[in-house]
Request: fold
Amino acid sequence: MNYADILKSEIYRFIQSDEHLGRHVILLGLAGSYSYGTNNPQSDIDVRGVTLNRKSDLIGLTSFEQYVDTQTDTVIYSFMKMITLLLSCNPNTIELLGLNPEHYLYLHPLGRELVDNAHLFLSQRAIHSFGGYADAQLRRLQNALARDSYPQREKEQHIFNSVKNAMYDFRKRYEPFENGAIRIYTDKAVNPDFDTEIFVDTTLTHYPLRDYKNIWNEMNNIVKDYDKLGKRNRKKDDNHLNKHAMHLIRLFMMAIDILEKGEIRTYRGEEQQLLLQIRGGGFQRGDGTFRDEFYELLSDYEKKLDYAANNTALPAEPDMKQVQEYVMSVNEKVVRDEI
Reply:
């Protein structure tokens, strides 16, 4: 199938007619299940793309971030918005730079240049961005199931991972503190109802009270949210549950590739059968909960990601000088009317 033919459909006319799109579009590609290789007959076609900011956005008074068409589930980001998302290793956008060739619906030379410069955006930020998205998928699963039977030790580990991801952002939003000043870890439980539990060591001096209060509140809210999950019984249909479970594992796969190989590999050909097995309910019990094998698989991927994070050759942060030079070279063409 030539996927690019879908753009000829009348429902995609907005790509040519909207003033922010048309000749400004530099990249369009498949997103979602078709780009991962996990689509089934019920899967919708999702499109994501990038469009250049116009001259008036760059040196005038207009502004534009993204175009959303709900009928076709299409999102087209402005070039500058896309750069911001890529710098944070946002999973929903970084995957657009690692599609199979046949999954690109349109590639302007500047779109090809963006794909070729994917390495500029790969950094250890992926540890926390992908970890955060994976955590969100896990929460969806837990929130949908009555998790009374969920092993306490595993639950505690996932709470720990959530707090650890939150701590990465604390340094950006609150007064910085030295490594180890706030240390969290799991150990043998003091609580007689637990096998293991999370502990914290805190050594702070001359630290703003309000910042400390906010940090503590955020940690507290994560723990409270997880404690509430086991008391809910919001039943989602099996298709959605299995789709969440599949995406959870897929996120780990992509993150490990980025950290170990410096590659963005959106299409999961080698793991396709495993992902389709998860999506098809192969790890689900008759009562809708997931078998122990799924959580063992999840634990294995968590360990692989942890190892990859601790041994990656990627820089801690992107090289902002290189990124800026690239962005300026593109925007200069727009300002000079060379596009």
